[in-house]
Amino acid sequence: MTATLRAFMIKEFRHILRDRQTLTILLLMPLVQVVLFGFALRSDVRDVRLVVVDPSPDHATLALRARFAAAGRFRIVAVTPSMQTVEIFFRRGEGDVAIAFDPAFAARLESAGPARLLLAVDASDPNTATTIQAYARTVITSYEAEIGAREGQPVRIVPEIRMRFNPTLESVNLFVPGLIALVLTLVSALMTAISLSREKERGTLEILLVSPLRPWQIIVGKVMPYLGLAFANVLTALLAAWLVFQVPFRGSLALLLAESLLYSTVSLSLGVLVASRTASQRVAMLVALLATMLPSALLSGMVFPVASMPPVLQWFSTIVPARWFIIIARGIMLKGVGLEYLWRETMVLGAMTMVLMTAAVRSFKPRVA
Amino acid sequence: MTAPTIRAHGLTRRFGAFTAVDNISFSVGAGEVFGFLGANGAGKTTAIRMLTGLLAPTSGEAQVAGLDVASQMDQIRRRIGYMSQRFSLYDDLTVLENIGLYGGIYGLAGEQIAQRSSAMLKRLNLADDLVGRLPLGWKQKLAFSVALLHDPAVVFLDEPTGGVDPITRRQFWELIYAAAERGTTVFVTTHYMDEAEYCDRISIMVDGRIAALGTPAELKAKWDVPTIDELFVRLARPA
């Protein structure tokens, strides 16, 4: 029986290795996606155009302006005495953020009274706006701390923030776990669905079903090589995230890999289920895309926070495996937590695996079209 | 006479209200070439699927290689070979890799596989190449040889010569005879009536029932027709 299964698995590996183009795409995909998504998300907040409104320049405002210029992310495009000019810059799309100092900024700062400034952000792109705001506050806070240390007493700079939207801060760090989920879904669900429905379409599945191979062996033999591929993909994505974007990795790598395998198994079962229920390769591919890729990308919390979805979609997202995996991956990578905090999500994935695997093996009974 | 290799008794399969195979009974002896004829939709494929374990019978019973289809399918699978009308090898694997795959699935040892594949390449006069690059006729001959790789008691051939040129078809039938001589029972469906004449015995299915069963000569004499072709047309389209 094991020799039988081994012969079948070798064949599956050969299929994968022989189709060089697909293999290359699959292996490079995590790299390309991490880099593309990462840069696409960051390019807008790289070169932030800053308009400075400084009606009465003094040494404190000049120093803070210099800090902004030196922070690396900001480029001062104009210094003007009045707020009116800011509106023009914003409307023309020539400025992203404006900082307006109250008169007598330095005097207030040093007399321990709060020094006030206004931070106005062009919030037409809410994600970018929040990021810019966060950057600006970092510059201000570090200046505040520096002056406080020099003066020997705490000083206060109170920024007033003005913008239309204020969603949660999204960054490449939050993106990478979602991306891993997406890549795993693609490799596991889509590729198994395609590969299995190809056997069905070509008639080779019939031959396999007539042979001593049992349905579960066919499924295991199909699934194992793709698990290996998924494993390689997780490592590539993590490596790219770490090398290109210095995304932190705080938790246990072994745990993340184990959870990735669990998640891949869920996706693989979905792929098998899709293949056994569809009549052709093309339909299988479309169904796999619709049923796994889209929910994984849109309803998992990868791009849009689950909390801001309408209740129906929130409910629906609980049956999207990627949602649970993303919670797990973010927990491990960004918070460094272990199973003691993630056991519930892990159990959900485990339960999904059992249900889907059982359904997949069942729907796979020797009953082909 | 030895015990039959295939025996069907009252074999029936219904899909809802439609009866695809209606109470058929027949038996096929060891080393016999049995032609299983019938128009499209007459129930041939359904019958083969029941004999190969792809479909459960609604009623009736069948034995293949002395084993019961309902209860001993796992053992039967090791004793039968199957070649469907669709090409059944993998185009993206080489000839040897395909042979190795099926050899492994049927539990042959590595040595046996190596021996039999080199013998097969020599017999078919084939070089080891990607199967996708072979002409259709060669592919079909290869698929047949692979179906025989594990020395099955019975080999089921579902329209094995569809779309193949006459010369290759002739060669294909030489392979069939050679297998039968070695004692393998050959159960073959075909639409070519000249091929029907090559069979030891044939059955003709019409609307799920066996309308005629016997050697080609017997049947022609009984219905007083010059060819099986004419008999087939007369049975399949009653006047």
Structure commentary:
The complex is a heterodimer of chains A (369) and B (239). Chain A is an alpha/beta fold and 369 residues long. Chain A folds into 2 domains: 48-164, 3-Layer(aba) Sandwich (abc type-2 transporter like fold), CATH 3.40.1710.10; 171-368, no CATH class. Chain A is built from 14 helices and 5 strands. Chain A has a 5-stranded mixed sheet with strand order 2-1-3-4-5, with helices on both faces. The longest helix of chain A has 31 residues, at 172-202. Chain A starts with a helix and ends in a 6-residue tail after the last helix. In chain B, β7, α6 and β8 (185-189) form a beta-alpha-beta unit. Helices cover 38% and strands 26% of the residues of chain B. The termini of chain B are far apart. Chain B has 9 helices and 10 strands. Chains A and B meet through α1 and α8 of A and α2, β6 and α3 of B.
Briefly say what this structure is.
Chain A is 69% helix and 8% strand.
The DSSP helix count of chain B reads 9
User: Which bin fits the share of residues in helices of chain B?
Assistant: 25-40%
Structural class of chain B: alpha/beta
Mean pLDDT of chain B: 90
Please state the average pLDDT score of chain A.
Answer: 81
Using only CA atoms, what is the Rg of chain A? 27 Å
Indicate the proportion of strand residues of chain A: 5-15%
The portion of residues forming beta strands of chain B comes to 25-35%
Give the helix/strand class of chain A.
Answer: alpha/beta
Number of domains of chain A: 2
Question: Which terms would index this structure?
Answer:
heterodimer, A: 369 residues, alpha/beta, abc type-2 transporter like fold, 2 domains, 14 helices, 5 strands, elongated, B: 239 residues, six-stranded mixed sheet, four-stranded antiparallel sheet
What's the structural blueprint in terms of helices and strands?
The complex is a heterodimer of chains A (369) and B (239).
Chain A: H1 2-18, H2 20-42, E1 48-53, H3 59-70, E2 74-80, H4 83-92, E3 97-101, H5 105-110, E4 115-121, H6 126-151, E5 157-162, H7 172-202, H8 204-210, H9 215-245, H10 253-277, H11 281-298, H12 311-317, H13 321-335, H14 339-363
Helix pairs in contact in A: 1-9, 2-7, 2-9, 7-9, 7-10, 7-11, 7-13, 9-10, 10-11, 10-13, 10-14, 13-14
Chain B: E1 6-15, E2 18-28, E3 33-38, H1 44-51, E4 59-64, E5 67-68, H2 73-79, E6 80-83, H3 95-105, H4 110-124, H5 136-147, E7 154-158, H6 166-181, E8 185-189, H7 193-198, E9 201-206, E10 209-214, H8 216-223, H9 228-236
Helix pairs in contact in B: 3-4, 5-6
